[in-house]
């Protein structure tokens, strides 16, 4: 591969099959996951959201701008005591709780004891045990983080709540076409065509920053067509094969974030390094070799406790269905050389 990771390129060889829509036929598709979340909050007229402290703060800032109050509770990747933490929260009338399946590593969580409505974020594992068996009031996900599409989020209700409708907008159709154009340019770049990387990177960056300014919109026509045709089982099966292959690597300076059970589908290979210094050394060296990991997520500097410790030591490496086992062997060789 010319490079690993970062934004999806246009995958013109993707396998068709049983799509996500067959798992969850009663859903509403949005331009992105944060719009699905906002639609839920507006529909429920919730006055306060409880977010886990380990979360994407771009989304939290987006919600704060609406005037909805935000509170936090202690939760983070690898934490198996989240139910106990939630049991002790001081809920009030008008509250709603958001729970996160970090990196697809978590098994099913029962919400029957939670005294307020629950929103679950399944962006990192769309069809794992937790999402399939969910008894939450609402479920949301960012489809574009898991599937090779330009944009897209989704909302459904496991308990059968009426879903807020949303219309297509010209702004999002135009936005989507620009992002698909960048994805196609990246595909051509990866196969060695004479494409200037900076041009599609500029489009990716501009559109990424533009999500926060999009009006509430239905997913674009082109992205929806892909969501309804991509073989979601085949996509996840390849991802899990890739993850297992990388898991066999030997690292002296990091450990891998494990799955809670075999029904979980990993979002990526998450490495937890011995220190922030080592994480940064590895991250910089990977980028020099055209391997682009992610830090999910950078937390505010005033964060404390286990959440900030994990944020400063973690790296997320893509291993999704766009890659083959041969690609993963290349990546594994590089990782073992750098991390030992």
List the defining traits of the structure above.
single chain; 2 domains; 340 residues; alpha/beta; 3-stranded antiparallel sheet; Aspartate Aminotransferase, domain 1; globular
Polypeptide structure, described:
By secondary structure, this protein is of the alpha/beta class. The protein folds into two domains: 20-156, Type I PLP-dependent aspartate aminotransferase-like (Major domain) (Aspartate Aminotransferase, domain 2, 3-Layer(aba) Sandwich), CATH 3.40.640.10; 231-339, Aspartate Aminotransferase, domain 1 (Alpha-Beta Complex). The chain is 38% helix and 14% strand. The chain is built from twelve helices and twelve strands. The protein has a seven-stranded mixed beta sheet, with helices on one face. It has a three-stranded antiparallel beta sheet with strand order 9-10-12. Helix 6 runs antiparallel to helix 7. The mean pLDDT is 96.
Could you outline the blueprint of secondary structure elements for this entry?
Elements: E1 4-5, H1 20-23, E2 28-30, H2 33-44, E3 48-52, H3 57-64, E4 69-73, H4 82-87, E5 95-100, E6 118-121, H5 129-133, E7 138-142, E8 153-156, H6 170-190, H7 197-210, H8 221-227, H9 232-247, E9 254-256, E10 269-273, H10 276-288, E11 291-292, H11 305-313, E12 314-317, H12 325-339
Parallel strand pairs: 1-11, 3-4, 3-5, 5-6, 6-7
Antiparallel strand pairs: 2-8, 7-8, 9-10, 10-12
Helix pairs in contact: 6-7, 9-12
